[in-house]
Design a protein that fits this description.
The protein is mostly helical and 174 residues long. The protein is 70% helix and 0% strand.
Length: 174
Amino acid sequence: MTRVADRLEKITEWMMAAMLAVMVALIFGNVVLRYAFNSGIVAAEEISRLMFVWLVFLGATLALRRQQHLGLELLQARLPFKARRACAVVAHLLMLYALWLFIEGSWIQLLIGLETRSTVLRFPMAFYAAAGFFPAIAMTLTVLVNLWRILSGQPDARIPGDPQAAFGAASTDH
């Protein structure tokens, strides 16, 4: 399971790099064309905007998997292990609820977007909503896996405030 997730992470990184390269080329090319030749690539803004939206959500998914989102663990670090674990379970349940709301809203927007077209390229606006929908499902799976690890007492569970987590080792004060 971890190997599959690692492979998907690598694929996501490459997709993000490709999208960023295309964005840079389109925007730079458009600037040069506008200033040098008084013309431009009509679809450059639309494609770049769509890629930027996807980059944000894919990046958020990778950051969640790597525990790189900002967090305030000062209070949790002062709690005993069982209280930290309880806080982590509550936080994971709240994240799952928020992700459910996000998935539900993205799904509704995706359905609406199937009927709406972009201005220049005429692609379905559902592509924007899909940028939130699919990464939110991936984030839900990530949170569920870590919640399972916490509840089953696995040593690789990520518990915020864990004094050893910053150094890459599991907590030893069980």
